[in-house]
Each structure stands twice: as C-alpha cells, then as structure tokens.
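Let us work through a complete example step by step.
Step 1: write down the sequence.
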Amino acid sequence: MLNLDQIDKVIKLSLSEDMPFGDITTENIVSEKSVSKARFIAKASGIVCGMPVVLRTFYLLDTEVSIEVLCPDGTKVNKGDVIATIEGPTVAILEGERTALNLLQRLSGVATATNELVEIIKDTKTSVVDTRKTTPGLRYLEKYAVRVGGGQNHRFSLSDGVLIKDNHIVAAGGIKQAVSMVRGNIPHTIKIEVETESLDMVKEAIEAKADIIMLDNMTNEMMQEAVKFINGRALVEASGDMNKDRILGVAQTGVDIISVGKLTHSVKAMDISLKFYA
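Step 2: predict the structure and record it as tokens.
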C-alpha cells in the first residue's frame, strides 16, 4: 500500500507547479456548478500503474469527484482500453488532468518497461531490480512502479545499504580497506555490496567477505567465470548497459540479480488520454 504522506507531497508540488496562481483558462470558461464525465483511455498497450495517485490527485482538488477504476495497477491493457471513468465538478477535473496524466503515464511506462524485462528472463532464477537513477522527487513512486511491473527494488537511498563503488575504493586505498572500514561502523544487520570491474577485484571482494558482489560492465563470459569463482559465497549482481537484447544472456550466466538503470532514468511514458463524453 502506498504511503499517502509520500504521494501527497509529490501531487501537491505538481499541482502548485502546474497552476501557481490558478487555472486562468478554466476559471474564465467553466461554471463552478458544471459537472462532467470523462474516460482515461490507453493509447498504447502496457501495464497500468498509478491509479491510487490519480485518485488522490482529484480527491485533493475536490472530494466530490468520483472515479471508477476499471483497470487497477498491474493490469495489462491494449490500445483503446478504458482504464477508468471520472465524474464530478468540471473545474476540478480540468485542473487535475495534467498532473494525474503525467504521473499515470510515467509510472505506467516504468511498470511496462520492467515487465518486458521480467518476462524475458522469467524462466531463470534471476531477478530484475532498479537503481537510484530515478527522477528527482519521484523515487518512491517509480520504485513502486517497478514492483507493479514484476521487478524488485535495490536500495532506496544512500542510508539503506552499503554499496562500495569505484570512487570509494580509490578513496579507501582498495576493496579490503573499504570493506574493513565500513564494517567496523555499521550494524551487523546491514549487508555490504562491492562493485567490481575485473576478476581480480572479484577475488579481493570475496577475500574481504563482501555479502553482495556487483559485476559492472563485464562481458557475459567474464560474468560466467566470476559466478563460478564466487560459487555461492556472495549474492551476485550484474549491472551495466542492460537491455532487452542482452538481458537473457546475462541471466543465463547464473547471476542472482540484474540491476537496470534504464527502468527509471530514460523510460518512455505510456500514452494515456483523458476524454470528456456526454
């Protein structure tokens, strides 16, 4: 279930950005007593995600708005399908239209892109996860969309887990030094992940007893060799230029996790429209 405090912050900021001093078009055309009906229509196939955000957007504008959700989050839809119907004060519907659609389209795009990758590797043991390469301010919602699409979440923030990357390794003077320093200052309940770019780095991470080893930008052959060497002594994550053409081959190397930044940093929004009807 989504946290209302989290989504309300996003919605209120979006509404304020869209109409900082009101909606001067609607306010000068539409009567406050006017009531309308409209449909949310999919203009492309995909996975619906963000309907709770849509509901909350219009609720915050006017509690008289009524929405019937025909396709809940996670539903696969085709072009032309009606996702939901809305009825209520015309002013509120027009004021909330763009904010609701922007968020619904964005989250549905993330869920759809995630589901495409999940389906490709569904017969392997590997999971698809997101990264922190999210839209500023939308991380909570975009990571929710990844879950709706069938993926899993990597850490939500820098406070959630230890991920020792290339710059940390340079700053510390090596993998063993970095792992040792951080292990002495975190609770035993937090896992330590190390990013590696070569088999020598993988061996060093194993010697340092890292809990998770990221294989970053390696060839499939190198990843397969790394997985064989690690031999279950750590969870193995693959990362770097993951796409539909490559992901199955990567999963077949035996890695446990594939992290995909493209799920959130450059995903195409799903085309959805809101159309009034009599």
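Step 3: interpret the result. The chain is about 40% helix and 20% strand.
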